[in-house]
Design goal:
Blueprint (H helix, E strand, L loop, with lengths): L6 E6 L4 E8 L2 E9 L11 H23 L8 E7 L3 H18 L3 E5 H7 L15 E6 L4 E8 L2 E7 L5 H11 L7 H8 L22 H17 L3 H32 L3 E5 L6 H14 L2 E3 L11 H12 L17
Parallel strand pairs: 1-4, 4-5, 6-9, 9-10
Antiparallel strand pairs: 1-2, 2-3, 6-7, 7-8
The structure holds 5'-O-[(R)-(carboxyoxy)(hydroxy)phosphoryl]adenosine and zinc ion.
């Protein structure tokens, strides 16, 4: 990728994970994440608690990333950090820290869009993982995002579809909450779905124009369905949990694949890259594989640790921007609603 010796520190703090990673010429030397367990008790991320935990974690996490990479901070060429989108209190911690460190070391500062990070994570040099060729379609699916992006080059990206309400991960997590599962419920629904019948119960898919998504109606439909059924049989959920999970997952995957099909047809692009925590879902992975046979797609899923929120994806954007001399100055500010 590069002939120079470039060391980049990436810092990510947009939601509830404090993360730091060191990259050397496009390869990851360390990728450290402090997850915030505190939110599990609340069934979702509590912004106030998230910023406090970032404050506690940021210095130890960066220390550990440098130590694991086997370099000192003086060897760094630039600091890349998440400018947005995300929770303002969380973003402020990473942004302020990155600015101070870059200032102290007198090295360039690089601001990174978190959503571009999820997409450009596909360009981290990693054995066994192919990089998608341009143009490709990127679908980012997580607890905070649901987007389809047309990518024509590293920095020419166009959002062609996104959720108008909940993110797909929220659809999993909120459905799980209705069923009495822990948070986050996505992995548990995935596990149970493998043991259930996806056709057991039918949930109507939302009708949303174009390539946009909507998941809040599905959540309400599931709530009413469960309330109705438990009125007739108070053990309905316990007796049918695997089938309910399989049916919910089947519906959600159907929604995602329908929009991908439409996007691929409209753009004529058959290279499809996914990212975000929900890309761990075994059903969506299978559906993408099926899409290779049925629609001639080539699909790309990054290494798992680069799909959920992480700083390696921030470091790769930093690396690519460094090569273009695209730096931020010390007046840069976090932006909660930053667009691609
Ligand atoms: O990317 P991520 O770690 O954090 C952000 O939200 O940014 O994604 C977390 C989301 C949660 O909603 C979780 O329920 C979902 O990803 N998730 C899954 C699976 N693993 C994680 N959803 C469905 N199936 C899975 N196997
Ligand atoms: Zn994310």
């Amino acid at each position: 990728m590069a002939t120079q010796n470039i060391y980049i520190l990436g810092i990510e703090s947009s939601c509830d994970d404090t993360a730091a990673a060191v990259m050397h010429n496009g390869r990851i030397l360390s990728n450290v994440i402090a997850n915030q367990k505190i939110h599990e008790e609340y069934g979702g991320v509590v912004p106030e608690l998230a910023s406090r935990a970032h404050q506690q974690n940021i210095v130890p996490v960066v220390h550990q990333a440098l130590k694991k990479a086997g370099i000192t901070k003086e060897q760094l060429h630039a600091i890349a950090f998440t400018k947005g989108p995300g929770l303002m209190g969380s973003l402020l911690v990473g942004t302020s820290f990155a600015k101070s460190l870059a200032y102290g070391l007198n090295i360039p500062l690089i601001d990174v869009n978190h959503m571009q990070g999820h997409i450009l994570a596909h360009f981290i040099d990693e054995e066994g993982f192919d990089k998608p060729p341009f143009p490709f379609l990127a679908m980012t699916i997580s607890g905070g995002h649901t987007q389809i992006v047309r990518c024509d080059s590293y920095f020419e990206m166009t959002v062609i579809g996104e959720t108008i309400d909940d993110a797909v991960g929220e659809a999993f997590d909120k459905s799980g909450k209705i069923l009495g599962l822990g948070y986050p419920a996505g992995p548990e629904i995935d596990k149970r779905a493998k043991l259930g019948n996806p056709q057991a119960f039918k949930f109507t898919k939302p009708k949303v124009d174009g390539l946009n998504f909507s998941f809040s109606g599905l959540k309400t439909a599931i709530l009413y369905f469960i309330q109705n059924e438990t009125k007739k049989n108070s053990n309905f959920v316990e007796e049918n949990l695997n089938d309910i999970c399989a049916s919910i997952q089947y519906t959600i995957i159907g929604i995602l694949i329908d929009k991908l099909k439409k996007a691929s047809k409209e753009t004529g692009i058959k290279h499809i890259a996914i990212g975000g925590g929900v890309s761990a879902n075994s059903g969506i992975r299978q559906a993408l594989k099926d899409g290779e046979k049925k629609f001639g797609w080539t699909t790309y899923v990054p290494k798992f640790e680069f799909t959920t929120d992480n700083a390696a994806m921030i470091a790769i954007v930093g690396h690519l921007k460094y090569l273009e001399n695209e730096f931020a100055d010390q007046s840069v500010a976090a932006s909660a609603r930053l667009k691609i």
